[in-house]
Amino acid sequence: MLPLLVLASTLALATPAPAPAREDPAAAALPPREDPTGRSLYRVEPLRDGGLIALGIVAVAVPYTLLDDTLEQRCPCDPAEVNALDRGVIGNRSEAADTASHLTVGLAVAVPVALDLLHLGVGPVLAEDLTVYAQVLWLNGALVTAVKYLTQRPLPLTYANDPGLLRSPGGYRAFYSGHTATTVAALTTTAFTLQERHAQRVWPWLMTAGVGVSIGVELIVAGRHFYTDVLVGGLAGFAVGYLVPWLHLRAREPGVVQLTPLRGGAVLGYTRHF
Predict the structure, then answer these.
(1) Band of pLDDT at residue 267, cut at 50, 70 and 90
(2) Nearby residues of 32 by Cβ (< 8 Å), 6 or more positions away
(3) pTM of the entire predicted model
(4) Is the peptide bond before 20 cis (omega within 30 degrees of 0)?
(5) How many domains does the structure of the chain reveal?
């Protein structure tokens, strides 16, 4: 899904703009009207933002292809080493919940792209949206991967001695939950876009919270993650999903760093209007 998103963004950027129609002299005298439902929200620099997306792809791909040998497959493990909050998850197992979690994250990533395409059509505004969206997903993926390989936490199913996970690198990537982080990051960016473009300030955020809780429950019931895995995953996904589009927002006023002289010295300060 993520490579397709990058490809879609590239195609949108490469699509030539339609030839300008002949202007009616009478209409030319009128001030241009802005379409508030399809206006450009994000400031995108192809070289910089394309480079960040490429860096995120590398940061996700390299560990999974070259660093699996660095994961210490140390179980069977003593469940007593797990904190009291998380210990109750050991023993959970549900194939249905596991399948549901894969469907949830897939839909959370794909549906916003499809709706944005239907609403905006192929063009520069869609390309800006998709570039920011791809940057969110790949940055989120890079952070998740880095933390997984640093912590090497066994899954609840690994603590339960699942034979398919005891000697598999995938059995030692519990912290933190990538499914939860990706779902929340994708929906947070979508909610942010709807808020800024359509002034929808309630239901997109409720949807983000509801789906985020849902996938967390699915992963816990499936025995794939602990409570702390999904909690930290949700917080990390929200942070990335909000900060990246906020930093790209055209309407955001840049901060000003200034040196204010005072009697006997000076103060270096940062000022920004909210």
Answers:
(1) low
(2) none
(3) 0.81
(4) no
(5) 1
